[in-house]
Design a protein that fits this description.
Elements: H1 7-10, H2 13-18, H3 20-35, H4 39-58, H5 66-81, H6 85-97, H7 102-116, H8 131-143, H9 145-152, H10 160-172, H11 176-192, H12 201-211
Length: about 210
């Protein structure tokens, strides 16, 4: 993984233009970097993809092409991880304007909720160790609650991240019935698609919280 961030230095935009397989590979590399909390390096890869997407859209390709939507969403993740929240929010708002399908829409609404909560990553949605930190976390998650609720209101199997955020907030507020409801949905989503969570840490955390 240590050489993933070097990719933009030896792959041209033209090469990416010509190969969907290369685009998918770079998108996968950037996701690996983001999961390792290496947002600065991921940004180099995603900036290349984001530029290519812009070029192709200017050539008449649909903005709703699935891989284009995913590149823009991952770029927003990267910006959020780096603390560039305003630009991340603008990127996601622009994506919603293209009226993506329910799968993308519910994930983007959760992404927006995390920005409203001031959280860098889904991995930051935790139950802290101290009462003081727990109150701060509950207050932060509360700022994104409307977006999380909008996300889980969409009939999509990809609403699990929104349920996780609402479940953790409910735990922190000692709303146990709500916590069980949301964490059960989150757990079901994660267990149904384990390949999306290869290191298992998020699944383990949801299992722990659900067991509490």
């Amino acid at each position: 993984m240590d050489r993933l961030a070097e990719v933009p230095s030896f792959i041209s935009k033209e090469a990416v233009h010509e190969s969907k397989r290369l685009t998918d590979l770079l998108l996968g590399h950037s996701t690996t970097l983001l999961r390792a909390d290496r947002g600065g390096e991921a940004k180099e890869v995603l900036a290349l993809l984001f530029s290519v997407v812009g070029d192709l859209q200017n050539q008449g390709y649909s903005r709703q092409t699935p891989v284009f939507l995913e590149v823009r969403r991952r770029y927003a993740h990267c910006l959020r991880q780096l603390g560039e929240l305003r630009l991340a929010r603008e990127t996601l708002d622009d994506l919603l304007q293209d009226e993506p399908d329910d799968k993308i829409r519910c994930m983007v609404l959760t992404d927006i909720g995390l920005i409203e909560a001031g959280l860098r990553r889904l991995a930051d949605v935790i139950v802290p160790d101290t009462l003081e930190d727990a109150k701060i976390q509950a207050d932060q998650l509360g700022k994104g609650r409307d977006s999380f609720c909008d996300a889980v209101a969409i009939p999509s199997p990809f609403a699990g991240h929104g349920h996780l955020c609402l479940g953790v907030e409910a735990m922190l507020d000692r709303e146990w019935d709500d916590a069980v409801h949301h964490l059960e949905h989150a757990r079901g989503t994660l267990l149904a698609d384990p390949e999306r969570y290869p290191d298992g840490r998020l699944v383990a955390r949801v299992n722990l919280y659900f067991g509490v």
